[in-house]
Amino acid sequence: MTLNSFQFNTTAGLRFGSGLAKSSCKEISKKLGQRILFITDKGLMSLGITKPTIDELSNRGSIEIFDDVEADPSKKILLSAIEVGKKFRATGVIGFGGGSSMDVAKLVALILGSNEDLEKAWGVNNAKGPRLPLVLVPTTAGTGSEVTPVAIITIGEEEKKGVSSSIILPDLAILDPELTLGLPAGTTAATGIDAMVHAIEAYASKSKNNNPISRMIAIEALKLLGQSIETAVLDGSNLEARGNMLIGSMLAGKAFANSPVAAVHALAYPIGGIFHVPHGLSNSLVLPYVLRFNSVDIKAAKDYSELAQYVFPDLDINKGTQAVCAEFIDKIEDLSKRLGLPQKLREVNIPKEACVKMASDAMKQTRLLVNNPREVTEIDALNIYQAAW
Predict the structure, then answer these.
(1) Is the dihedral of CA 8, 223, 340, 137 positive or negative?
(2) Average pLDDT score over residue span 88-115
(3) What is the CATH number assigned to the segment(s) 184-388?
(4) Mapping DSSP to helix (H, G, I), strand (E, B) and coil, where does residue 7 land?
(5) Pairwise CA distance, residues 235 & 315, whole Å
(6) 133-186: pLDDT as tens digits
(7) CATH 3.40.50.1970 occupies which residues in the chain?
(8) Which residues belong to CATH 1.20.1090.10 in the chain?
(9) CB-count burial class (<10 Å; 0-12, 13-18, 19+) for 113
(10) Which residues, including other chains, have CB under 8 Å from residue 85's CB and lie 6 or more apart?
């Protein structure tokens, strides 16, 4: 096999273990300095999940809390967090929460550290840096944002924009499965499927940077996620399953951080942007339909069939590529049903006529569509949405 040149960038430091969100505070303080901007959301604050970490950090220096992050964070929220950080004269930033809090933290650290023009940072490798020291602590097992060079912000009412640059990879990621124990079953299911999408799309990505390291860790991610997701959803207090989901999500994040995602995400973004459906669920709703569309491509079908055995070990892999691929997609769809997730766009109150606008909007996600194994036209996108409706 001839190997193309590739790059592989990832988070510099990674820590995993129960209780680490509190016990790592000495190391976190050392990384972030004496004036720490703590970025999170009000939900986590009210549940008390943030308290042990905040209390411990407060004993070591000054801390300013910004807890206005919302799902699909807006540019207004981002700018507000930047302003708070400037007034506080932050020396470092910690993002504590789901993908939204971590994405905001990445861009706050970038702008506070460089004072660069945010509008010029959108896109791939446009951020100049430097950034402030940055630590990320995920409380969901889905986005993998703690190990990705990507931050997504909602612009205006509907459009999503991203900054993609290795500059915003954090200095340290803290994976503490205890933080995910309180996650509701529906959120666990949706974020878990989101992580699986990351691994599947990374493995089959048409990106020139698709590489052996990303493919290897995508497989390991799917092993962990496939064997643990139902337990984590049905028994939310199972710490082993929660830990496996957190590591699986992180590995999937590493995979797609270097071998980027494609049409599932491109078609999910309008669902979230226009109708404010959570990102993981948006991915889940279009996943089987995009995979079936892609499976017409011989290479994609081969990739999906190779992954099948890792997610579903009982699947007979001797049937031939197309048959295994088809069963893999059916089983993914059936898994989503068993997890109790909505199966159709209409179940999340999306009208059928909206498929036309969503198809048009999906075409704007060129940085993602270019990675898809099969070219997606606007008509293709419309057909996929209508099939998912």
Answers:
(1) negative
(2) 97
(3) 1.20.1090.10
(4) coil
(5) 25
(6) 999 999 999 999 999 999 999 887 777 888 999 999 999 999 999 999 988 999
(7) 13-179
(8) 184-388
(9) buried
(10) 37, 64, 66, 93, 108, 112
H-state helical runs in the chain: 20-23, 25-32, 42-47, 51-58, 75-88, 99-114, 118-121, 185-204, 212-234, 239-258, 263-275, 279-294, 298-311, 321-338, 354-362, 366-369, 378-388
Residues pairing with 159 in the sheet: 155
What's the alpha-carbon Rg for the chain, to the nearest Å? Answer: 20
- The whole-number average pLDDT for the span 80-96 is 98
- pLDDT of the residue at 229: 97
Alpha carbon 138 to its chain's center: 11
Predicted model pTM: 0.95
Q: Are 348 and 186 in contact (CB under 8 A)?
A: no
Q: Which residues contact 323 (CB under 8 A, 6 or more apart)?
A: none
Structure token digits, residue 285 = 């709703």
Report which residue type is found at 60.
R
List the CATH code of the domain at 13-179.
3.40.50.1970
